[in-house]
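Is this the right way to post structure tokens for a design question? Let me know if I should format differently. Anyway, here goes:
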């Protein structure tokens, strides 16, 4: 019985990951990073006392990935289509969506061309962690990063790609398994007790 169950909490976040069956834990971890070796290692090293330990273990496991492991993880990544199409933009409820500006459309076309060139040059999808980036800045940040990384040597880009995959996995893990338990509903107490 977990500490949350003992206190009437439902399983949440890190507790849920720690108590999941090995196959279920590995499947959840694969959603964070598509390397089976990485996911299996993290699942095998459970339980984690806190999110910090999980993230540290994940970073260590990411540094140990072979080129084949990285290729497997990259094959599982997809290009965020909202950068190309603008879908997913937040528009106030009831407001008509404004059409994208010509500059935005030009940036999207440039992003598609740069992404195609990147895949042709390096043989895999471009990955970039945009955690903490405002949605209205994501397109420009992605395009600038793509352009800069297209000039990199294959060895340098492999290192940057591995670091970006690790950052992506870190953010996904933090969302998968937060170690903050759900707030327990407050029970009204009579005055003076």
């Amino acid at each position: 019985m977990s500490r949350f169950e003992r206190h009437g909490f439902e399983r949440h976040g890190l507790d849920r990951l720690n108590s999941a069956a090995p196959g279920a834990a590995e499947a959840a971890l694969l959603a964070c990073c598509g390397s089976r070796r990485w996911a299996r290692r993290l699942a095998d090293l459970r339980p984690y006392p806190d999110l910090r330990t999980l993230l540290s273990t994940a970073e260590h496991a990411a540094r140990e990935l072979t080129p084949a492991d990285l290729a497997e993880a990259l094959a599982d990544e997809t290009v965020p289509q909202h950068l190309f199409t603008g879908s997913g933009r937040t528009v106030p409820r009831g407001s008509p969506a404004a059409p994208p500006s010509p500059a935005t459309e030009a940036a999207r076309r440039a992003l598609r061309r740069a992404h195609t060139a990147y895949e042709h040059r390096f043989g895999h999808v471009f990955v970039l962690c945009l955690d903490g980036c405002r949605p209205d800045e994501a397109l420009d940040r992605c395009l600038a990063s793509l352009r800069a990384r297209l000039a990199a040597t294959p060895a340098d880009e492999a290192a940057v790609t591995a670091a970006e995959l690790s950052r992506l996995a870190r953010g996904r893990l933090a969302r998968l398994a937060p170690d903050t338990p759900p707030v327990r509903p407050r029970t009204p107490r009579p005055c003076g007790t």
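Format looks fine. Someone answered above. Worth noting: The chain is about 60% helix and 0% strand. Residues 1-10, 88-93, 182-189 have pLDDT under 50 and may be disordered.
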